[in-house]
Amino acid sequence: MQSTTFRTVAELSRALAAREVSAVELAQDYLARIEAHKELNCFLDVRPEVTLEQAREADKRIAEGTATRLTGIPIAHKDIFVTRKWASTAASRMLEGYMSPFDAAVVKKLDAAGMVTLGKLNCDEFAMGSANENSAYGKVFNPWNVNAVPGGSSGGSSACVAAGLAPIATATDTGGSIREPAAFCGVTGLKPTYGRPSRLGMIAFASSLDTAGLMAHTAEDIAWVLGDMVGYEPWDSTSENMPAEDFTRDLTKGVKGLKIGVPRAWFADKLDAECSKAIEAVIDTYRSQGAEIVDIELPTADLGVSVYYVVACAEASSNLSRFDGVRYGYRAKDYDGIQDMIKRSRDEGFGDEPKRRILIGTYVLSHGYYDAYYIKAQKVRRLIAQEFDQAFQKVDAIISPVTTSTAYDFGSKKDPVSAYLGDLYTVPMSLAGLPCMSMPCGIHSNGRPIGVQITCARFNEAKMLGIAHAWQQATDWHLRHPEGF
Q1: Catalytic residue annotation
Q2: Angstrom distance (rounded) from CA 420 to CA 129
Q3: pTM of this prediction?
Q4: Has residue 2 got a pLDDT over 70?
């Protein structure tokens, strides 16, 4: 068998079924690559003995004829999902070394399908950030250019897949944390409809926004895995009770007869000219494939960033209040009384970005400001969702930018507000709970990947994946890889 590096999930599945390679050999191959590229700092916890035990069990299932099409396929998990056999830290000192007594629902479902876990992936602390500069265990480096951010918060997931350290990885998206890093690292990333994958066992940031998703090389790979990842969980009050679905069913349908909306106002001065040109090429390709291109307006979506950072920070303030050094989590060594212990534990355990968001959230939830900020933000959030609902009465999908530019250099956005504004094109969909994804559509003259975003109405993941697959069948941007990997 040829090298496993950059082979797709579909290709690896066929190779395993044909006994061209064993699950153990696959796991060993990827573990060796992870060790060889530790400089990227993608992984926070790798335990080869546990991985190889899972691989041996996968080989046993294959030999017995009880395997699924995903049995033996390696996968890496963002360190926001709790796991029993790997530490679960949310990339924070606050949870350093924490071993969960149970697996997150997403992890458990993929384990049941026979996938083999390679380890836990680095991310922004508590998933707070757009650049993966906020991890307590050091930043992740973009394999396309080590001076560039890999995007966040799921930078470990995007860099890992881009560098060929895993064929697919889980990730989470609160306001763009799958789509932005996927665009910055030239991989395909999908955020499903909010509530479709269970949040059970995800370390919470913003409970009404956090959504589990996937990053891989192709839309086809995501379609293969998504069905085994989603599903109703009665212990999760936000979990949608939907029938099982084959997300590969629309992969060969193409886009002929579909109406694709384009919010032209999003292609204004803020968008890099080369990124705009690359996205226009995607639109032209869909037009040539038989889709009807329709200009649409989403005027309220411009308020998305302001609304998002009120709502998300308010929920973060509530969710992170549990980390006090008393019940679990980091506890300061030196303190004078219980109040001082809680104060010092939080000061030492949290990084600057979680502290900043906790402060903002506590402020907007405080007496005298709750109505002025939080309630008003929720009202505008509803208007944004209604605006999308109206748009999807006219079109089947929306094509838009993911980010205003390609991956920027580390340290170039010293002002937190400028970093927050980078979420301009991603947070409106998150606020509306919509499924959306990023896929590669070009390489900038600076040598860094360009991404394009597709959005569909709620629970239309299969249609969205089919639209993405039609582009990837016509081009090879998703097959481009960084030099040296």
Answers
A1: 78, 153, 177
A2: 8
A3: 0.97
A4: no
Tens of pLDDT, residue by residue over 258-298, are 999 999 999 987 899 999 999 999 999 999 999 999 999 99
Q: Report how far apart, in Å, the C-alpha atoms of 358 and of each of 81, 152, 379 are.
A: 21, 19, 22
349 pLDDT band (50/70/90 cuts)? Answer: very high
pLDDT at 4 over 80: no
Indicate the pairing of strand 449-455 with strand 397-401: antiparallel
Pairing of strands 116-121, 43-45: antiparallel
Question: Within a 10 A sphere around the Cβ of 76, how many other Cβ atoms?
Answer: 29
pLDDT band of residue 3 (cuts 50, 70, 90) is low
**Residue 416, both tokens:** 């937190």
Contacts (Cβ under 8 Å, ≥6 apart) of 265: 297, 298, 299, 302
Contact 272, 404 (CB under 8 A): yes
CB-side exposure of 371: number of CA atoms within 13 Å?
A: 2
Look at residues 363, 352, 369, 358 and name the one whose alpha carbon lies nearest to residue 416.
Answer: 352
Average pLDDT, the chain: 96
What is the residue whose two structure tokens read 């068998």? 1
Torsion region of 429: left, alpha or beta (phi above 0 gives left; psi -120 to 50 gives alpha): alpha
- Cβ partners under 8 Å of residue 183, min gap 6: 151, 189, 402, 403, 406, 438, 440, 449, 450, 451, 453
